[in-house]
């Protein structure tokens, strides 16, 4: 928001203040002044002059010699200029000898091809004006002044270049300062000075006072849509437009706005266009209420209907672009077709043009969220939409309309026809009623750490212009003293917050206002009194760091990917929960490929792998730790938050690196490609770090994974019962699924241009929840173990998990402990018997108190082999 010092001074006496001093006070109170701009700084000696005659230069084809005067009938001056557009009788800024222009340029008498020039005629750029805000004609060549410019006057003052502009950097809640009146209220409160006049008594504004929408000043016409004019107003969506007013003005004459108005618009960063449009912008800056003027004769139906757009409707806006509308857009229509995007931009069809003679002037209250959605979707963030988004003062909708109507009548030759027409919804009265907020002095002092008196608190509300009343709070009752009333009752202050301050709704907002105006520097510095606590990281935070360090030590590289993925990628990979709810989707995604909140880390990891593969990184090992989002159900009430468990996942592709220190000579390719077992080994190492054991249950139903090279990771051992073939626990309880591991389905791998990648994903939240409460220390074994290898033929349909379960069951009947079982070979080649495969296991026996005898190990191995023969029909290999 750019604030003109001269304009602001009309509302509040700033005579003894400097712009720097006021900027410091505003900034200290929370309304930051980002920049102080002195328009026309350093420019002096430039006068308003009239060209008497123009003649060709005797010695130069491209130069002209003009005679100018700065007083009627006074002395004349000869000026040599190269401007081709100079005209006799026209008024221009004239820099006499000794004048100073923008950039420190000093003007002196100078001869051009034998003709002495007594100064120069100036362009807008030479005067330091904001040329990007001027018309193309004003930007090029000399800057022509209006024909009624005061001859001989100081051009700097006439063009408002002696003004100072305060550029405010407002926080989103201070929409009240998006107007000159709002900044005047703020300055008045900070400086403890009265406004020079009330907003409703502005120069040229209607007499009378601002009244609530629907009050008698609006009249019955504003309630039912009728009025003295033939125009009728209908609002079909009261939630998005609780108040809509309009005024017919006829007899419009197309002319520019007066110079004083153009000066203030330029100082505020707005380009002058014509009197009608400039008045709407001027009143918007003054009151903070956006307005729009329609060419009434182009609204053939003599009707205004405010409604939601229909799907597929189109509107060509003032910038000449055709907009495809949706039901989320609020539009102004003529009852048949849209003629404007409400609160954003008008339509080209009803634009005010030089031929316009009658206008319909609109002033309304539109719901901010709806305006913001439309403005963002069409990338049309205008000064008007910005104010509607943050909230306008509903009590200025009418007064701004009347102010603009009288200015247009005065400056554009118009006549106000009839009364105000429009419609106000039934709920508008309650919506626009001033808020009442209750506060006590003790609450203020307790929150701020101050010792303010009641008079100091009330003085703040007086300066803010907030009416208040004081009442004695109800006496409290002490339950321990048998219901005796306490004597120290406290006065409570009931503050009525004007509608212009929409940011104040609760007691804490009033406390902030007290702190701002008392001064943050007046709040004493005190050491905070906090309870002593034992430091430490939450379990998930510590686990996240620990897992990341462990995976990095195993040679994996950590990455961080987007939480938003495409809908196809979301459905492509398995989830751990049994819920069927759809993924949460962003309503207005910036990218169609980033619409859904991820339910798996795989899509992002595979994008990383594919990116590296395309950039000739032939192998990689990447992992990520992050949240996924599981909706509760599709029928959950609006606002129900999803579950957000923490997951860890990794993807492997390409070939394993060669063994460090080994004798491999053929490079990485001889180490073999990453496969299911590589990913499974990392999972086992991760589980072992947390003292967990898991069963890898083959799963052919996991989406996105290879049907015969994937498994669910199910908690086993001491923390859960061993699963059966179908994944259920032996005791009937549902299994604790920690995640999955496997190779990706060839179709998925092909989509990411990868060859047989392997991956895993685990729920770190579940892993931490089921880890042992404390680490269990085991001393190193004192006695050697005995290893026995067994190799046998077995039916191909039997899995490693089936064999492992039988071996563990047989080991329970042994007299010596079986401490480890490792599958070290699987063969399914051409030499295998039909329907059979070979599996080889290493069995390790170790007694904690003595050395085992060979005979004991042989007997235990024989028992396990017999059990396998009986239950799984194995046949030992020779």
How many separate helices?
23
Instruction: Write down how many β-strands occur, each being a DSSP E stretch of 2 or more residues.
Output: 39
Shape: elongated
Strand content: 25-35%
Strand order of the largest sheet: 27-30-31-35-34-33-32
The low-confidence runs, each spanning 5 or more residues with pLDDT under 50, are 201-228, 475-487, 659-670, 718-731
Structure class: alpha+beta
Distance between the termini: 91 Å
Q: Helical content, roughly?
A: 25-40%
Q: Rg from C-alpha positions?
A: 41 Å
Main sheet: strands, sense, barrel: 7 strands, mixed
- Rounded mean pLDDT score: 86
Molecular structure report:
The chain is of the alpha+beta class and 878 residues long. It contains 23 helices and 39 strands. The strands form 11 sheets. A 7-stranded mixed sheet has the order 27-30-31-35-34-33-32, with helices on both faces. Helix 8 (275-287) runs antiparallel to helix 11 and helix 13 (441-448) crosses helix 15 (507-518). The N and C termini lie far apart (91 Å).
């Amino acid at each position: 928001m750019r604030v003109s010092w001269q304009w602001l001074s009309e509302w509040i006496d700033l005579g003894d203040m400097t712009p720097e001093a006021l900027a410091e006070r505003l900034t200290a109170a929370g309304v930051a002044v980002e920049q102080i701009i002195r328009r026309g700084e350093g420019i002096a000696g430039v006068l308003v002059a009239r060209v008497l005659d123009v003649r060709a230069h005797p010695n130069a084809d491209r130069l002209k010699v003009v005679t100018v005067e700065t007083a009627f009938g006074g002395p004349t001056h000869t000026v040599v200029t190269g401007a081709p557009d100079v005209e006799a009788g026209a008024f221009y800024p004239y820099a006499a000898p000794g004048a100073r222009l923008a950039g420190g340029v000093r003007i002196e008498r100078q001869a051009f091809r034998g003709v002495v020039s007594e100064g120069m005629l100036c362009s807008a750029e030479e005067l330091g004006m904001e040329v990007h805000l001027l018309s193309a004609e004003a930007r090029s060549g000399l800057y022509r002044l209006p024909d009624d410019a005061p001859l001989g006057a100081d051009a700097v003052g006439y063009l408002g270049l002696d003004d100072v502009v305060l550029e405010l950097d407002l926080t989103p809640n201070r929409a009240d300062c998006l107007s000159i009146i709002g900044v005047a209220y703020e300055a008045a409160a900070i400086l403890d000075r009265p406004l020079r006049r009330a907003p409703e008594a502005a120069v040229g504004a209607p007499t009378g006072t601002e009244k609530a929408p629907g009050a008698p000043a609006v009249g019955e016409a504003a309630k039912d849509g009728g009025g003295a004019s033939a125009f009728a107003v209908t609002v079909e969506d009261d939630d998005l437009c609780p108040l809509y007013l309009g005024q017919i003005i006829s007899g419009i004459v197309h002319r520019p706005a007066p110079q004083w108005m153009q000066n203030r618009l330029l100082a505020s960063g707005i380009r002058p266009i014509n009197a009608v449009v400039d008045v709407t912008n001027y009143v918007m800056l003054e009151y903070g209420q956006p307005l729009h003027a329609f060419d009434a004769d182009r609204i053939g139906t003599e009707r205004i209907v405010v409604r939601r757009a229909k799907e597929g409707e189109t509107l060509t806006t003032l910038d000449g672009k055709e907009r495809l509308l949706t039901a989320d857009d609020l539009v102004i229509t003529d009852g048949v077709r849209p003629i404007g995007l409400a609160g954003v931009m008008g339509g080209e069809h009803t634009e005010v043009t030089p031929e316009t003679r009658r206008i319909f002037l609109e002033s309304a209250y539109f719901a901010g969220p709806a305006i913001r959605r439309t403005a963002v979707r069409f990338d049309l963030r205008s000064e008007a939409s910005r104010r509607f988004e943050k909230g306008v003062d509903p009590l200025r909708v009418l007064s701004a309309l009347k102010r603009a109507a009288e200015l247009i009548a005065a400056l554009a030759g118009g006549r106000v026809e009839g009364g105000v027409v429009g419609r106000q919804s039934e709920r508008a009265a309650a919506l626009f009623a001033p808020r009442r907020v209750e506060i006590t002095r003790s609450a203020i002092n307790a929150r701020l750490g101050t010792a303010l008196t009641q008079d100091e608190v009330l003085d703040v509300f007086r300066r803010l212009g907030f009416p208040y009343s004081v009442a004695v709070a109800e006496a409290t009752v002490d339950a321990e003293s048998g219901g005796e009333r306490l004597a120290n009752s406290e006065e409570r202050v009931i503050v009525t917050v004007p509608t212009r301050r929409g940011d104040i709704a609760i007691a804490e907002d009033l406390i902030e206002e007290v702190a701002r105006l008392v001064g943050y520097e007046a709040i004493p510095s005190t050491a905070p009194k906090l309870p002593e606590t034992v430091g430490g990281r939450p379990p998930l935070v510590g686990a996240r760091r620990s897992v990341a360090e462990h995976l990095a030590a195993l040679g994996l590289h950590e990455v961080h990917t987007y939480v938003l993925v495409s809908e196809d990628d979301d459905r492509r990979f398995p989830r751990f929960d049994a819920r069927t709810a759809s993924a949460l989707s962003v309503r207005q995604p910036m990218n169609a490929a980033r619409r859904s909140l991820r339910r798996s880390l795989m899509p992002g990891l595979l994008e990383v792998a594919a990116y590296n593969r395309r950039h000739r990184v032939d192998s990689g090992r990447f992992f990520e730790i992050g949240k996924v989002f599981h909706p509760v159900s599709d029928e959950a009430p609006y606002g129900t938050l999803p579950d957000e468990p923490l997951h860890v996942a990794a993807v492997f592709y390409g070939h394993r690196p060669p063994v460090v220190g080994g004798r491999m000579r053929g490079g990485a390719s001889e180490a073999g490609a990453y496969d299911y077992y590589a990913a499974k080994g990392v999972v086992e190492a991760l589980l072992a770090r947390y003292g967990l054991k898991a069963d890898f249950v083959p799963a052919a139903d996991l989406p996105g994974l290879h049907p015969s090279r994937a498994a669910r990771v199910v908690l086993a051992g001491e923390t859960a019962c061993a699963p059966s073939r179908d994944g259920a626990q032996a005791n009937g309880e549902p299994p604790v699924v920690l995640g999955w591991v496997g190779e990706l389905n060839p179709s998925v791998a092909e989509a990411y241009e990868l060859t047989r990648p392997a991956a895993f994903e685990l729920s770190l939240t579940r892993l931490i929840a089921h880890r042992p409460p404390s680490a269990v220390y085991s001393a190193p074994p004192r006695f050697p173990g005995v290893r026995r290898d067994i190799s046998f033929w077995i039916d191909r349909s039997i899995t490693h998990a089936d064999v492992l379960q039988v071996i563990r069951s047989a080991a329970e009947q042994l007299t010596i402990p079986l401490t480890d079982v490792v599958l070290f070979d699987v063969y399914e080649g051409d030499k295998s018997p039909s329907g059979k495969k070979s599996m080889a296991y290493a069995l390790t026996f170790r007694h904690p108190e003595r050395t085992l005898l060979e005979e004991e190990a042989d007997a235990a191995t024989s028992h396990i082999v017999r059990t396998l023969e009986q239950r799984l029909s194995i046949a030992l290999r020779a």
